[in-house]
UniProtKB/TrEMBL annotation, chain A:
Annotated membrane topology: Peripheral membrane protein
Alphabetically ordered keywords of this record: ATP-binding, Cell membrane, Membrane, Nucleotide-binding, Transport
SUPFAM superfamilies given in the database record: P-loop containing nucleoside triphosphate hydrolases
CDD domains attached to this UniProt entry: ABC_NikE_OppD_transporters
Native source organism of the sequence: Aminobacter anthyllidis
GO cellular component terms listed in the entry, alphabetical order: plasma membrane
Lineage: Bacteria, Pseudomonadati, Pseudomonadota, Alphaproteobacteria, Hyphomicrobiales
Protein name as it appears in the record: ABC transporter ATP-binding protein
Tree of life domain: Bacteria
InterPro entries from the UniProt entry: AAA+_ATPase (IPR003593), ABC_Ni/Peptide_Import (IPR050388), ABC_transporter-like_ATP-bd (IPR003439), ABC_transporter-like_CS (IPR017871), Oligopep_ABC_C (IPR013563), P-loop_NTPase (IPR027417)
Domain (ABC transporter) ranges: 12-260
Cellular compartments annotated: Cell inner membrane
UniProtKB/TrEMBL annotation, chain B:
Protein name: ABC transporter permease
Transmembrane segments: 13-35, 109-132, 153-173, 193-215, 251-277, 297-323
Domain ABC transmembrane type-1: 105-316
CDD domains cross-referenced by the UniProt entry: TM_PBP2
Membrane topology annotation: Multi-pass membrane protein
Family designation: Belongs to the binding-protein-dependent transport system permease family.
Domain of life: Bacteria
UniProtKB/TrEMBL annotation, chain C:
CDD domains assigned to the protein according to its UniProt record, in alphabetical order: TM_PBP2
PANTHER family linked: D,D-DIPEPTIDE TRANSPORT SYSTEM PERMEASE PROTEIN DDPC-RELATED (PTHR43386:SF1), OLIGOPEPTIDE TRANSPORT SYSTEM PERMEASE PROTEIN APPC (PTHR43386)
Primary location group: membrane
Residue span, ABC transmembrane type-1 domain: 91-295
Swiss-Prot/TrEMBL keywords: Cell membrane, Membrane, Peptide transport, Protein transport, Transmembrane, Transmembrane helix, Transport
Signal peptide: none
Gene3D superfamilies registered for this protein in UniProt: MetI-like
InterPro entries listed in its UniProt record: BP-dependent_transpt_permease (IPR050366), MetI-like (IPR000515), MetI-like_sf (IPR035906)
Keyword presence, Iron: no
Bilayer topology annotation: Multi-pass membrane protein
Protein name: ABC transporter permease
Location(s), subcellular: Cell membrane
Amino acid sequence: MTGSSQDKAPLLEVSGLSVDYGLKGVSSRAIDSVSFALRAGEAVGLVGESGSGKTTTAMAIAGLLSPNARVSGGQVCYRGNRLPIEDDAAMRPHRWSETSVVFQGAMNALNPVHRIIKQIAEPCMLKLGMPRGEATARAGELLELVGIPADRGAAYPHELSGGMRQRVMIAMALACRPSIIIGDEPTTALDVITQAQILKLLGELRSQLNLALILITHDLSVVAESCDRVMIMYAGRIVEDGTVAEIFAKPKHPYTRLLIDSIPNPANGKKMIRPIPGDPPNLVNRPSGCAFHPRCPSAMGLCATDVPSFDKFGRSRVACHLHRSSQEDKVAAHA
Amino acid sequence: MNGGRTSRHFGRILVRAIITLLMVAVLNFFLFRVIPGDPASLLLGGARISVTAEQMKAQRQNWGLDRPLFPDQAVDYLSATLRGDFGYSFKFRGRRVADLIVERLPATIVLVSLAQFIAIVCGVMLGLYAGWRRGGAVDHIATGASLLLYSTPSFWVAMILIVIFSTALGWLPGYGAYSPGVSTRSLDQVLDYLRHLTLPVSAVALGLIGQYVVVARAAMSDVVTEDYMVTARAKGLTGGQMLMRHAFRNAMLPVVTLITLNLGYVVAGAITVEAVFAWPGIGGLTVEALNARDYPVLQGVFLLLGASIVLANLVADLAYGILDPRVRQ
Amino acid sequence: MSDAIVPYSPRGRARAIKGFLGQFLSYGGAQVGLVCLVFFLVVAAMPNILVGPLQTAINATGEFLEPPSSQHLLGTDEVGRDVLNLVVHGARISLTIALLATVISLVIGTTVGMTAGYFGGPVDVWLMRLTDFFFVVPSFVLALVITPVVLEVIGRGRDILGFRPSLFVIIVVIGLTSWAFVGRIVRSQTLSLKERTFIDRARVAGSSNLSIMVRHLLPNLVPQIAANGALVVTGAIYVETSLSFLGLGDPLQPSWGTLLSLAQRAGAASAGAWWYLGAPGLCVLTVSLSFVLIGNALEDTFDPRRRVIP
């Protein structure tokens, strides 16, 4: 916003981030050497099965790691400054003012005993220091912005539909004018039509307010409609990263291909969901080599022993032994 | 917005309360008729006093005992009960049960409400804190102690308190409500009353504290795992703000229910403690009535306990409806 | 609770029970509770062998209100009886009353809850209205007014099943007034089990309602009944102790509550006879605490939310 030089530098840069969870002496790695950059106003989808590390990645960025999580490597930089993501108190000024989260709109992300207007106004009062009246007025404006009449602010969460609650969550996320919004499965519990409306709203607000959006979902079709870029995660690692157009047209990683195939598409006559065979990986006892190899239809001998490197191909990246042969591209990209 | 639904909700609660109270009265009615001996002589003060045949007959007519049990007698009984007429005591000859109860009620109310107040302040705070800092030192101590208190009859706690603070240390009196010889209507008398009150109140309060710690802790440890607490943390609230603005009110929902329910139960619970201290309240009256098999008094007490329990349930339901917007639906 | 459905093969059932016991015994509370409970059950089983026959004012062996000594480990009471002797015999009375009352309460609660949940409709409505009454009005309050009346009606005559009539009355009254809690839980559990396919299978196969309830529903209700049974025992001990303390017990077969009542009447507290009132009180405390701990551990074991894999 301030100048073109800032637009070039990434808003958020995650480099080599690894997070472990300790449970009763057993430690499991939730995310492993995750690296990516996010520019202002950009929309990135973070896709994977449950346990793939997508939520841990997002929570680390938002400074919301749980007490039993430990950052065992790497860092997160926001506008060039390293964030103290392991220090709960030190992250407090960053939260909501810079990065806010739209949680899954299921009932309980909103406090059931407070009116919604109060919950939206709360961060305005506590973080921006607005007096109550001003904060309430701003909360009303925010409600109008997400398409809810301001006088509905007197309602309690349980009096609203799922879609309305999700809009309230979005209004709340906008309260302190953040630069990044993380959507944690924001449309999962909703029906298809409401889902489309919420995604449209998020898209409009993003361009209107120049917000960067990180959309966490297990549903690749959600990403197709609302993101510029997609990152596919598997067993704590990013396995493929590219623009939406590239990934859908030419998926490189076999896992990505299977994910795209599993989207039901009535237009192609594909009505049935084709599940990916095999079980999700065990994070405490991770498979050797490429973690996907036990389920991979194209697995080779190498896949069980060597961890594939994360190589760059033009504007996209992929971690798969099938795509090692094109070393030249990488060299060319470097030059 | 949904006034119709709300009033219907409260209407249902009210109907349920009335049904319960009616069942208490019906049980009272049948128990009273089951006792061997002529109900008329029971009403006149039991077989322990001699009455003339004319008196019996008059009483019989007066109470309609010559008419069928149902519906006539039952209806008469219910209407008498509604008027606050519970008959006459055996032991305190000729005295009306209602008068006896009214006479003894203030002492119990003082005892019970003071104990409630202390238990709410100590128990709820301690329980909420233990649940908020689950697994901490305070949590371990509070949970252990409250489990002990929870399993201990409060009248035994009362006896132990007497042994320690009255007999061994001689700090506080362990019997009755007044010392003989202290001048009436003076500050001395107030202080004397308070000194007599200390041990009974402590015994009742300790039992309640055990309950409140257990429930408040459980409620708070449920609340801290809720999604809206993650939202509050994501909003950048401090620990104190999360506790006061988001956790406290939600955790208080089950606690408030327990506290209001206890308004009814605590009178019954205090009966044994009053017996230990010879406290001149409803408990003391109950023990005297039990020993003398003074059924009219016993039944009056039963009705009083039933009514206070039903009333407390009613208040608890209403309070929950006010505190939790979801229930009003 | 899908995994709580009773497996049909005996081997599967044995494995399930073994797994359950392993989990249950891993709780520290359960271990402490079980050890205490076994101790008291052994004591209650053979009071005559341990301390000789119950002492009375006639065959009392000591002086009045003697503090503990090598001769009387727990001192003596106001007529010279050995407190240890009284407490050991009291264990038999107290535990029998509490356990028998609990059995009655569980049988009624399970029957009412299962019937209401299984048949639904007006049966459910009326049974639940009845349950609500007993749920709201506590057992202690009901027993307080019913017990003396029943005692008066049946008189204090002959023994029933080896019990003095007053104790028998207390058992029945506590059992009849403390089942509502179990009834509610069993009903809600029955409602959810009713929707399961194995009930439909049994119905299609032509099983009668009674046989479905006894053979298919009941085995799956056992976990809930057991966990709550432990809490019902605690309640029964509390009610029995309180009633006996108020003088409704029987001095010829004294329970711990009756001993406390005798101690109170003898003025043990103001005489500083801590051993006299301390011993029975500690017994009550230990036994109730054991059942609370066992009940909590059972609930934790059965609660699917606490499992690693739901």
